[in-house]
Amino acid sequence: MEIGWLHFLRQRQVLVFFVLLSMSRVGAELEPYSVAEEMERGSFVANLGKDLGLGLTELSTRGARIISQGNKEYLQLKVQTGDLVINEKLDREELCGPTEPCLLYFQLLMEKPLEIFQAELRVEDINDHSPVFTEREMILKIPEKNSPVGAVFLLESAKDLDVGINALKNYTISPNSYFHIKMRVNPDNRKYPELVLDKALDYEEQSELSFILTAMDGGSPPRSGTATVRVVVVDINDNSPEFEQPFYEVKIPENSLLGSLIVTVSASDLDSGKNGEISYSFSHASEDIRKTFEINQKSGEVILATPMDFETTESYSIIIQATDGGGLFGKSTVRIQVMDVNDNAPEIAVSSITSPVPENLPEAVVMVFSIRDRDSGDNGKMICSIPEDLPFILKSSVENYYTLETEEMLDRESQAEYNITITVTDLGTPRLKTQHNLTVTVLDINDNAPQFAQKLYEVQVLEDTPIGSWIITIFANDLDTGNYGKISYTFLHASEDIRKTFEINPVSGEVHLRSCLDFEVIQFYTIRIQATDGGGLSEECTLLVKVIDINDNPPEVTISSFTKSIPENTERESTRGERSGGEADYLLSREPDPRAVA
Question: pLDDT, tens digit, for every residue of 387-438?
């Protein structure tokens, strides 16, 4: 298994873009799935068990579950059947807007053993929206005579939230002898109508015309929306406004202040009076553009109205129309490039946590999590780290997934709990970071045998000590906790004399006298004592009991009479004879004492 590390500031760091495969099948992809939007909750999508070739019970026993991106759980896995079903009704327009295809990414996570499968769900559009015009009535002021046949006039476009075949398809107008409709596509792929003049206008003949503009989508059956177009014929205005440049391009940081000046466009008109007065407006602008920017109708200044977000929209293409007092217009395009700034801190999403962790397991998986940063470039590159002085390591896999594992077997007796801070830092300027705090408890196992305070205990006891008297307390200690740390005391391989004479409390280790002692019978007892913990580990020590004699026996003479002749000149203190006598309370002998018991 390969591991890539960068060491910085005493921290173990893992670069996001250095991808390692830490286990088999991590990052494997499932076949893409698709489902129509607006389906009811519980609708069937696919059977993941069959797709993966797994049995009915395997998904459950392996702890399979679905991880969705974002805060909402749109999908649900029924582990008993393997069915993937809709958990919340899907609105394609709400999820993806105009983006096509509309893809929801999710992962199938199986914990035992750890496997992660990447998958995507394509939300298919249904024709549930009709084209809608922003303005129900459009007014065009067109000068007479000066507008030649074939002249083109811009009309407001309709908006259809559907995409693909269900999106806006074409425009038509009610029959008339003056105009027909031609459809165009602007830089952001929005279809808009142009009104083409088929017959010269004459103010004196007809000063105003009205007709119905219809926008139709490509659904089956098709949906449509209408607006009224009112053409006001005005007297001659033979010069259209002209912009100083046909194309403007600006770059703006995404964190620009509201009210900031983006660009100033300028157009001129050779006409005088009202026909030379110019007003500026957005042409065929999307709702997003109209919400984000404002234009001063008189000065042509484009200002920021609402905050921009590079992660949502990287650029804007705006058609600006300059219209004079007579209805003639010119147009220019402004392209606004949004510059990314490091305004998003990294995010940590925890998939699973295992705590407590057994102390005897090496490379135990403690936590599975993923990270992401919504910024781009260096602002979106991340470093993931934990403190270096901990017995844990981070391992990275595909798609920014990480596992926090034990680097070695833990020892609960050395440390029973670890407080771990996972830090994710991006490489932007300034650097932003996110931290996740985790407390890991170490689960005790029976890896410590009881230990006696001393291997040999010695005690002296008077032979007339009453039965039931306390003799000594034997003590052992076990570093384990719970049942593994509970100790019971017993005599080990004790003779019948020992078991009849002494007893030991299995809980407290107190040794008591069970029957009378007799120095004249047994002077020493050697007792082996065993301490056993709740997990079966044991240790032993030796207790030496020395019986102290008391004067409880009179002297005895071993003969009843004695006669001996002594010469008259025998010297003083000479030995001429022996007598035999004794006392049970004390014995002198050069031989080993037979009155000892082990």
Answer: 989 899 999 887 788 999 988 888 888 888 899 999 999 888 888 889 999 9
93 in helix, strand or coil? Answer: helix
Nearest to 475 by CA among 507, 513, 512, 514: 507
d(CA 321, CA 243): 9
- Taking only Cα atoms into account, the Rg of the chain, rounded to an integer number of angstroms, comes to 49
Residue 298 near residue 324, CB atoms below 8 Å? no
Q: Is 276 helix (H, G, I), strand (E, B) or coil?
A: helix
Looking at domain 451-598, which CATH architecture does it have?
Answer: Sandwich (2.60)
Q: Average pLDDT over the chain, rounded to whole?
A: 84
Domain 28-124: CATH class, spelled out: mainly beta
Residues in the chain, total = 598
Please classify residue 492 by burial: count the beta carbons closer than 10 Å to its beta carbon, then call 0-12 exposed, 13-18 middle and 19+ buried: middle
- Cβ(530)–Cβ(539) under 8 Å? yes
Give tens-digit pLDDT for 139-159.
998 887 778 899 999 899 899
Q: Which CATH number fits domain 242-339: 1.10.10.10, 2.60.40.60, 3.40.228.10, 3.30.457.10?
A: 2.60.40.60
Helix (H) or strand (E) holding 58: helix 58-61
Buried b / exposed e across 32-57, counting CB within 10 Å, b at 16+? ebebebebeeeeebbebbebbebeee
| CATH of segment(s) 132-234 | 2.60.40.60
pLDDT band at 566, cuts 50/70/90?
Answer: low
**How many helical (H) and strand (E) elements, i.e. helices and strands, does the chain have?**
5, 48
The Cα–Cα gap between 339 and 376 comes to 10
Q: Which residues of 447-468 are buried (b: 16+ CB within 10 A; e: fewer)?
A: bbbbebeeeebeeebebebeee
Tokens 């991590």 found at:
26
**Which residue in this structure is represented by tokens 């391989």?**
493
Reported as a single tens digit per residue, the pLDDT across 510-558 is 999 999 999 999 999 999 999 998 888 899 999 999 999 888 777 665 5
Report the candidate in 290, 314, 302, 402 with the shortest Cα–Cα distance to residue 352: 402
Tell me, what's the pLDDT at 592?
45
List CB contacts of 309: < 8 A, sequence separation 6 or more: 254, 338
> What are the residue ranges spanned by the domains of the chain?
28-124, 132-234, 242-339, 451-598
pLDDT at residue 49 greater than cutoff 60:
yes
Q: What is the distance between the alpha carbons of residues 157 and 131, in angstroms, rounded to a whole number?
A: 9
- Number of Cβ within 10 Å of residue 560's Cβ equals 5
pLDDT reported for residue 505: 95
What's this model's pTM, rounded to 2 decimal places?
0.50
Burial (CB count within 10 angstroms: exposed 0-12, middle 13-18, buried 19+), residue 273: exposed
Report the candidate in 355, 361, 366 with the shortest Cα–Cα distance to residue 447.
Answer: 361
d(CA 131, CA 222): 10
Report the greatest alpha carbon distance in the chain: 191
